Amino acid sequence: MTATTPTPTPTPTSPSAPHHQPLLRPMDLAGLRLPNRVVMAPLTRARAARDGLVPTPMHADYYGRRASAGLIITEATWVSRQAIGFADVPGIYSAEQVTAWRRVTDTVHALGGRIVMQLWHTGAASHPDHLGGRVPAGPSPVNPRTRSFTTTGFQETVTPRAMTPAEIAATVADYRAAAHNARQAGFDGVEIAALGTFLIAQFLNPRLNHRTDAYGGDRTRRRRLLLEIVDAVAEPWDGRCVGVRLGPYLAAGDLFRPDAATLADHDELVTALNDHPVAYLHLRGPDRPTPDARPDTAALARYRHRFHGPLNANNGFDRETANAAIEAGTADAVSFATHFIANPDLVTRFALSRDLATGDPTTYYGGGARGYVDHPVSTWQDNPGQQP
Ligand SMILES: Cc1cc2nc3c(=O)[nH]c(=O)nc-3n(C[C@H](O)[C@H](O)[C@H](O)COP(=O)(O)O)c2cc1C
């Protein structure tokens, strides 16, 4: 038989061609080989079974549909019963929860994906309704003046108790145990949520942390809790696979402000992370002033130069701005939250320049399948003029 020379396939020149999209280049993160840099950001969806706060079969369905993400970061998950501060959010502190999460990780892995668990503790931002009537504990008796979502709706936070040194040590131990449980449940790593109005961010913040012991006072002492948690969480992971998520630009009420002191605290904190087993930094940038504004990449670059490992950037990115940020070297990967709610096949849509669907915010927190596992994937019939 005579061999025929195959007709060369024309090199795609459309900007949607994968090699033109930095987002679609593989990379190493948290000891994992990611096939692309489209990360699913953590999303609290408040659909755990109320009895035992366990993930349900719908969780496996929800995460499995998103397995083509370069990396999935789960919804924030309770490290202990004391950490609870939002209704119907799952935990990773009981054997039942570990078993239920195993179904999720098995599904994602069977579909070729990678998944890390975000660890959460609300501290003073909890509410007595979550804690059997007990007053929540935080760094100092300062009301964070925020709201907690309880089974009877949003409620104003109260003035908390100051954690005792023994409670701080127990909390660090709870994080270590949760990280161990996450490994038992088949996760590929863990991410420490150190942002928002929650426990770790409360300790970092001098407006909430008035302590005079080893965990309060100057910047070094205020960041001590986080760094102890990083070291503790890394133990069951042999010093690998631990990410840290920071949000220095949060503006919430008058207690959480991205002023010069907050940003300088984070300058030093990010530099200090280099001396601890941190596999990646997940940075939430400033909120955009208008829906059409581009993400403020200068604000991300401030921390980019201080951290020596990979940077996963977030907040307000789309395909074009994310590709530009990676191309410019401002970020190694970009995480998407709201786009992943409505577009389980976000990677495919980016690769093929498909239109994105928009989610329904009334289904973000709580409820059932609607808005959770019913978003369709795009098909070859969609946008027929845009096939590569
Ligand atoms: C419904 C919802 C739930 C969220 N839950 C979490 C969470 O559990 N942990 C976290 O760190 N951030 C959480 N966030 C913040 C997102 O991860 C992300 O920072 C934010 O939506 C901006 O990213 P985006 O512009 O891609 O949507 C949540 C956001 C939304 C809309």
Could you walk me through the main structural features you see in this protein, from its secondary elements to its overall organization?
- With 388 residues, the protein is an alpha/beta fold.
- The protein has helices spanning 57-64, 95-110, 165-184, 199-204, 219-222, 224-234, 260-273, 297-304, 319-327, 338-342, 346-351; strands at residues 27-29, 32-34, 38-40, 71-78, 115-120, 137-138, 147-150, 153-156, 161-162, 190-194, 242-246, 280-284, 311-314, 333-336.
- The strands form four sheets. An eight-stranded parallel beta barrel has the order 3-4-5-10-11-12-13-14, surrounded by five helices.
- α8 links the parallel β12 and β13 (311-314).
- It starts with 26 loop residues before the first strand and ends in a 37-residue tail after the last helix.
- It binds flavin mononucleotide.
- The site of flavin mononucleotide (FMN) has 19 residues, from β4 and α10.
- Flavin mononucleotide binds at residues 41-44, 75-76, 118, 193, 195, 245, 284, 314-316, 336-339, 364.
Elements, N to C (H/E): EEEHEHEEEEEHEHHHEHEHEHEHH
Q: Tell me the CATH architecture.
A: Alpha-Beta Barrel
| Strand content range | 5-15%
Small ligands present? flavin mononucleotide
Which oligomeric form is depicted?
single chain
Mean pLDDT: 93
Spatial strand arrangement across the major sheet: 3-4-5-10-11-12-13-14
Continuous helix count: 11
How helical, in percent, are the residues? 25-40%
Name the shape in a single word.
globular
* CATH hierarchy, class: Alpha Beta
The total tally of domains equals: 1
Number of strands: 14
Distance between termini? 34 Å
The CATH superfamily bears the name Aldolase class I
Structural category is alpha/beta
CATH topology: TIM Barrel
Query: What is the CA-atom radius of gyration, in angstroms?
Result: 21 Å
